[in-house]
Amino acid sequence: MLEVKEKILMFLAAQQKAESSLGNVVCLIGPPGVGKTSLARSIAQATGRKFACISLGGTSDEADIRGHRSTYVGAYPGKIAKALSIAQTKNPLILFDEIDKMAHSDFRGDPSYALLEALEPSTNNEFVDNYLSEDAPLDLSKIFFVCTANSSYNIPLVLYDRLEIINIRAYTVEEKIQIAKRYLISQFKKKYKLKNEIEFEEEAIRETIDYYTREAGCSRPGLFNALAYTEFGGDVLQIESSFFARKEKDSEFTGNLGEVMKESCRVSLAYIRSNIEKFGIDSDFFANNCIHIHVTEGGIPKDGPSAGVALTTSILSAITKQSIPQSFGATGEISLHGWVGPIGGLKEKAIAAYRNKLKIIFIPKENEKDIDEIPKEVVEKLKIIPVYNYDEI
Description:
Helix content is about 35%, strand content about 20%. With about 400 residues, the protein is an alpha/beta fold. Helix 13 links the parallel strand 13 (about 360-365) and strand 14 (about 385).
């Protein structure tokens, strides 16, 4: 969190030094529950601004941003005008929450373009809310805008280029323990009036985090990080594998996977099945069980063969019930004999691994030549292990 705070301070310092708005808007990206909204509130408090939050989850009508014309029955002002009314000031901090969850409607207008008009410095000094009429434009140039998202994938491209992305990583188990001890438990006791009636030992807190909660940061068998390359750059996707008793049912692959990625799932399973003795798997395991493979962020289409190594590792972790540190990740196609094939976008994937606090990544040996393209500061912090065959992992 210290690194995040430093980035925000640098952004605030640059904004204060500039004669006019820099045109960029801070966008905090991270899993649910890592404190994005709380951080926005803290920025408002530190800068002496009123705070207002606008939830964009499910917003599909540009009128939600611009407002409805007053001639319509049931007309109302847009969310920005409402936020200004609540804040009672021209220069609040307005948080656009879940900017990646906006929907698109073909006949109601695209809300992302209405939002762009509000964020763009060249137009936001005369923002027109339809409910208030064109004769009374709103000056939004004094507002400090902050956005939040769980992932960069679904952020509209027209907005993405204008955002100052700050990634907030998931908490480690040790960090979660400290949060529980310093804040959550005291709040729990106060809420249920249990101040002196119950105590939580650290081991109990750790067990709860490891085996009950599902927030990012918990390490359980079957979870492994796959390095992905998207139109926005690199990213880290979590692969989940589990098994269940076979009842005339084939293995399942979910998470909006394309045909090529489903083939990778089948190849990974075939490779493991042909090497069950080497991996210490019971000979009748696959006869009695089916595998379910899921790649998180199911709303985003995924395809390509480069997750083969990660898929294999996730499946083996689930079957052998061995947890893998969340600081590990991998990229590479896998063959039926375990050979690790080359991939594209190594530079972007390595940067994503570094950004997500991974420590060790496995890559195809054939991509070793591409390591020179990776920024020096990333290579210094990230242990990159090239492999020819899965046996080396």
